Automatic annotation (TrEMBL):
Subcellular location: Membrane
Higher taxonomy: Eukaryota, Metazoa, Chordata, Craniata, Vertebrata
Cofactor: heme
Highest taxon above the source species: Eukaryota
Pfam families: p450 (PF00067)
Protein name as annotated: Cytochrome P450 27C1
Length: 541
């Protein structure tokens, strides 16, 4: 450990402070607390009452004599410019493009103001890695106010997405043991495969309804139902009938509630930009939003109650209670029933559009790149012959995995993510006080030429690691986030997508329908196709 002098500037004070360089990044405010993994931390100790400097975690390289800049000095668009961009030019549907424009104009770290909110955007891969690696034990997500408001009003529990602090830690520690590792979710392989078989049948039914007998209109609608069926099979251990000709009423009601939720997205975004004191005089987005949440909770509640009744009946009959995820959670009761219901609700919500948009983009990209499609098809036939894939085959299908990674690089479902900093930080040379809202710009890092040469090209093989030197740097594209607060459903989503894409390629050659033009992405909460995608599914044999 060595001690150097550097200039730290906090607010309007510029002062000389001791800089302790150490091979470790210290996670807490005290210099002498537990060390975790490698980087540097700057800490300024008190040098008299007047010179009080908040200790800060430095997440970049420390250069001797570097002046730490204040937020005031950070570049960024003007508040008025943002107002016009988002409210007048409908920037909410172009968040991913604005992210790119702003990072090109203002650099890898810049600030933006949305009404009363100040947001610092992190748009560089290395800075992103440093910020995420420095996260504490319970990182805090940003912009969850409207979700929390609903839970406060309705008296419902939070789930993993909306919970914070100790509540979140408790739930996360239960769920991470059940679904975080590929080997945990391999147990669902047969159930998911059965859903994929139904998806293939559905493709055949839908294309038979068109004059050319090949085209499926608006493929996302079909993948939405596949994703809902797949995730429900895992979460609720029951089939919903979403891939049937006629969808059961309760499943249809859920779909309606989910659509309502996404249609109220924009108004809930506005809510964050409206100062709290103005809320009473401005129409609240609440009505639609709350009734969609009611619908989503009602659906989970119904499944949880039904499963609980089944378990109780079995116990009364003296039978052994066996089952999957929900059964396990209800038997062990590591969370209470309200918490289980809330988590089922939030996981179902998180697991449908994300997976279906990614499948839509993946098949669209395959249709537009027949050579790539052929290459992946050959890998599938060489590895499996005509056999149906299982979770155990996925490690032997690197191009299928590359297909999903490359699709998510080009179209990260969450183009950006939010955090509230829990320590004073120095990032990229700027001092960010604890409580600063961060926007992690995943879209701009994954579309950067610096991180991915030929960034606009669709190249699933760029993810095949031939040796260490070929390795694509991990933080350029992190569509599931990173670390302790990353997507808990990642392995489930991957299983659903790997198995579906493999079976689809075994059965069909995918072609672009003449009606489908160049489809651009738009942001609607998630990054989604800006227009319906119609594709042809032509039999392989
Ligand atoms: C293509 C599919 C998916 C993508 C790209 C995706 C992406 C993400 C991202 C970026 C986050 C935020 C991570 C962070 O804040 O660092 C997240 C969180 C989350 N996702 Fe996913 N997700 C997908 C599918 C799923 C599925 C299938 C489930 C259902 C089990 C799910 C459940 C969740 C939950 C519960 C969280 C909150 C985790 C927490 O706060 O602890 N996701 N997801």
């Amino acid at each position: 450990m060595s001690i150097q002098s550097t200039i730290l500037r906090v607010g309007r004070k510029t002062l000389l402070a001791d800089v302790v360089t150490t091979p470790f990044l210290l996670r807490t405010h005290s210099l002498h607390k537990t060390a975790t993994s490698g980087s540097l931390r700057v800490a300024a100790e008190h040098s008299g009452a007047d010179d009080l400097v908040p200790p800060a975690i430095e997440v970049g390289d420390v250069q001797k004599g570097t002046r730490v800049k204040s937020l005031k000095e950070m570049p960024g668009p003007s508040a008025f410019g943002n107002l016009i961009e988002f409210f007048y030019r409908d920037g909410f549907s172009r968040i991913h493009e604005i992210q790119m424009e702003h990072s090109q104009k203002y650099g890898k770290i810049f600030k933006s103001r949305f009404g009363p909110q100040l947001v610092v955007s992190i748009a560089g891969r290395d800075l992103l890695a440093q910020v995420l690696r420095a996260e504490g034990v319970a990182p805090q997500r940003a912009n969850m106010e409207s979700w929390k408001e609903y839970r406060d009003i309705s008296g419902r529990s939070t789930g993993l997405i909306s919970a914070e602090g100790d509540d979140w830690l408790k739930m996360r520690s239960v769920l991470r043991q059940l679904i975080m590792r590929p080997r945990d979710v391999a147990a669902f392989s047969d159930d998911v495969s059965a859903v994929v078989v139904d998806l293939v049948k559905r493709i055949k039914v839908l294309r038979s309804q068109q004059a050319d007998r090949h085209t499926v209109l608006n493929i996302n609608d079909m993948y939405f139902k596949y994703a809902m069926e797949g995730i429900s099979t895992i979460l609720y251990e029951s089939r919903l009938g979403c891939l049937e000709d006629s969808i059961p009423k309760t499943s249809q009601e859920y779909i309606t509630a989910l659509n309502l939720m996404f249609s109220s997205f924009k108004t809930t975004m506005y809510a964050g930009a409206i100062p709290k004191w103005l809320r009473p005089v401005i129409p609240s987005p609440g009505g639609k939003f709350c009734s969609s949440w009611d619908g989503l909770f009602k659906f989970s509640q119904m499944h949880v109650d039904k499963k609980l009744a089944d378990i109780r009946a079995k116990m009364v009959r003296g039978e052994a209670v066996q089952g999957g995820l929900l059964t396990h959670m209800l038997v062990t009761m590591e969370m209470n029933k309200e918490e289980i219901t809330a988590n089922m609700t939030e996981m179902l919500l998180a697991g449908v559009d994300t997976t279906s948009f990614t499948l839509s983009w993946a098949t669209y990209l395959l249709a537009r790149h027949p050579h790539v499609q052929q290459q992946i098809f050959e890998e599938v036939t060489q590895t499996l012959g005509g056999r149906m894939p299982t979770a155990n085959d996925v490690p032997n299908l690197p191009l299928i995995r590359g297909l999903v990674k490359e699709t998510l690089r080009l179209f990260p479902v969450l183009p950006g993510n939010g955090r509230i900093t829990q320590d004073d930080l120095i990032v990229g040379g700027y001092f960010l006080p604890k409580g600063t809202q961060l926007a992690l710009c995943h879209f701009s890092t994954s579309m950067s030429e610096e991180n991915f040469p030929g960034a606009d090209d669709f190249r699933p093989d760029r993810w095949i690691r031939k040796d260490q030197s070929d390795r694509v740097d991990n933080f350029g594209s992190i569509p599931f986030g990173y670390g302790i607060r990353s997507c808990i459903g990642r392995r489930i989503a991957e299983l659903e997508m790997h198995l579906a894409l493999t079976q689809i390629l075994q059965n069909f050659r995918i072609e672009v329908s003449p009606e489908t033009e160049d489809i651009k992405a738009k942001t609607h909460g998630l990054l989604c196709p800006g227009a319906p995608i119609d594709l042809k599914f032509v039999d392989r044999v």
